[in-house]
């Protein structure tokens, strides 16, 4: 259940907040989200990664299709990719990696700061 909440909330953050902030501020927000929601390591990694990766993939395709610009095809030719579809895929993979590592960092920071028991033997200390 935490995986789905991380996935949905990270997607909403990327789609609605990214026009106003830079990508690294979005990564900080994803780390804070993962810190607050306390997911497992794998749920944070995959939820944040899929949320940001699919958002970047969708936004790049939407902007290209809605404007009808030739820029993605020109950039793909400049990078010798052959087609602009590969450029969209690279954008999605890059977004996945950034979101996954940001969310994983938040979850691991939460685990690092978690209070550990002082008396592990449950006995008295003399």
Architecture overview:
With 126 residues, the chain is mostly helical. The chain has one domain (2-113). Helix content is 76%, strand content 0%. It contains five helices and no strands. It has helices at 2-17, 23-37, 41-67, 71-78, 84-113. α1 runs antiparallel to α2 and α3 (41-67) runs antiparallel to α5 (84-113). The radius of gyration is 19 Å and the shape is elongated.
List the topology elements.
Elements: H1 2-17, H2 23-37, H3 41-67, H4 71-78, H5 84-113
Helix pairs in contact: 1-2, 1-3, 2-5, 3-5, 4-5
Question: What does this entry show, briefly?
Answer:
This protein is elongated. The model has no long low-confidence stretch (mean pLDDT 88). 76% of the residues lie in helices and 0% in strands.
Features of the shown structure:
126 residues, mainly alpha, 0% strand, elongated
């Amino acid at each position: 259940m935490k995986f789905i909440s991380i996935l949905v909330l990270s997607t909403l953050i990327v789609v609605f907040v990214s026009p106003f902030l830079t990508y690294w501020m979005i990564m900080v927000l994803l780390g804070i989200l993962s810190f607050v929601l306390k997911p497992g390591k794998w749920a944070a990694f995959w939820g944040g990664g899929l949320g940001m990766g699919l958002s970047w993939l969708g936004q790049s395709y939407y902007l290209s299709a809605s404007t009808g610009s030739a820029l993605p095809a020109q950039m793909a030719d400049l990078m010798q990719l052959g087609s602009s579809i590969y450029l969209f895929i690279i954008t999605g993979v890059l977004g996945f990696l950034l979101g996954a590592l940001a969310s994983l960092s938040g979850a691991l920071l939460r685990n690092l700061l978690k209070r550990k028991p002082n008396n592990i033997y449950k006995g008295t200390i003399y």
